[in-house]
Design the sequence.
């Protein structure tokens, strides 16, 4: 079994045109940050998702950082953020010396609970200190309930940053994920649905905002012949070579989504007789990109997520625990947290305790899928 082909969680999957775009960069010697591929990648992505402006950056994390900066987040400010996410969603809050306040998930989509968000706003209102921004994460490729969240945020006049790092190509009520907030951010890290090895994009309909982000991302150089700086800048731009990969990847995004959905459906059907296994719920308001298929195990079923992870690993198959919620992380332990309800265990913690991300690699064959499922199956037939 050990020498069988390794099955990955979600690995880079080139479409074919990437090399041509990269070669073009080589042939024209645009081996630099910025260049024609960067401009085209920005335009093509903006067009695809239906937003006016985009800035290609070195990472999704950089995109969140610049969004926070543009919204004026400073030392001592508060920022609300989904708790069930990857640390990159909230680390930039600390880069600016601000304080994250974490919001629990709702059971319907595992994303930010509008009810918990409302409670957080009511408390902030009573204390007379509003957050400067709300970072809403679209987990594992599914949009949060943006209408409800935006309505609450609009009541208090607080802008939304949509962390769509995992949900490029997903929709919410007919609109593309990442285009529903004041800012949206995407990631092209190696394991995301499309990749540039590393990279990110900041998008908005606000032209000034995106221009300013590009300015900060290129060391905040003033418009002068000599090197003059009136503000602190960053080296956050995407390179022309990597943008070439991104342009090729954009062309296969919908093909990747179709395959990710096929993987999800295959697991769901293939494991349907195992009553102890449930799947991440899919809300009726949109269509996910099915980036990862995530299961939860029923409480007390006798099998733990880590048992499955170990058994899969023993069979050369990669899987991954669900994100550990931010409010349970040592680095954020002093931060406030708003649970979905007053019950002992929060929704996000419960999902973390019972959840597992199954291999969802678009290069998997149906045989590979069957191999994964037969390993899982063994653990439930004892
Ligand atoms: C991957 C990811 C990010 C960070 O993107 P990078 O490009 O790796 O910096 C941010 N938020 C979420 C939810 C992610 O999954």
Sequence:
């Amino acid at each position: 079994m050990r020498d069988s082909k390794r099955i990955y969680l979600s690995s880079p999957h080139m479409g074919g045109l990437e090399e041509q775009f990269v070669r073009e960069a080589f042939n024209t010697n645009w081996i630099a940050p910025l260049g024609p591929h960067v401009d085209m990648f920005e335009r093509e992505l903006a067009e695809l998702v239906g937003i006016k402006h985009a800035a290609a950056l070195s990472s999704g994390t950089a995109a969140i950082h610049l969004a926070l900066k543009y919204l004026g987040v400073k030392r001592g400010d508060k920022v609300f953020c989904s708790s069930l996410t990857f640390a990159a969603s909230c680390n930039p809050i600390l880069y600016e010396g601000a304080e994250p306040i974490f919001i629990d998930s709702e059971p319907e989509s595992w994303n930010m609970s509008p009810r918990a968000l409302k409670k957080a706003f009511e408390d902030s209102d009573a204390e007379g200190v509003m957050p400067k921004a709300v970072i809403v994460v679209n987990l594992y490729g599914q949009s949060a309930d943006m209408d409800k969240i935006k309505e609450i945020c609009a009541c208090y006049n607080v802008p939304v940053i949509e962390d769509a790092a995992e949900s490029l190509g997903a929709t919410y009520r007919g609109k593309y994920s990442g285009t529903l907030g004041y800012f949206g951010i995407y990631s092209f890290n190696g394991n995301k649905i499309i990749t540039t090895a590393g990279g990110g994009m900041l998008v908005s309909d606000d032209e000034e905002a995106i221009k300013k982000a590009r300015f900060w991302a290129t060391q905040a150089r003033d418009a002068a012949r000599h090197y003059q700086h009136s503000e602190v800048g960053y080296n956050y731009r995407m390179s022309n070579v990597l943008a070439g990969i991104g342009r090729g990847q954009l062309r296969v995004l919908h093909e990747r989504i179709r395959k990710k959905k096929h993987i999800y459906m295959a697991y769901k059907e293939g494991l349907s007789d195992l009553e102890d296994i449930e799947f991440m719920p899919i809300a009726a308001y949109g269509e996910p990109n099915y980036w990862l298929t995530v299961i939860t195990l029923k409480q007390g079923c006798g099998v733990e997520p880590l048992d499955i992870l170990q058994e899969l690993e023993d069979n050369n198959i990669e899987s991954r625990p669900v994100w550990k919620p931010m409010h349970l992380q040592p680095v954020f332990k002093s931060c406030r947290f708003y649970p979905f309800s007053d019950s002992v265990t929060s929704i996000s913690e419960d999902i973390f305790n019972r959840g597992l991300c199954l291999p969802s690699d678009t290069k998997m064959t149906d045989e590979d899928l069957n191999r994964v499922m037969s390993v899982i199956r063994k653990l439930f037939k004892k």
The pocket of pyridoxal-5'-phosphate is lined by residues 59-61, 85-86, 88-89, 137, 163, 165-166, 187, 189, 200 (CB under 6 Å). The longest helix spans residues 253-270. The two ends are 21 Å apart (CA to CA).
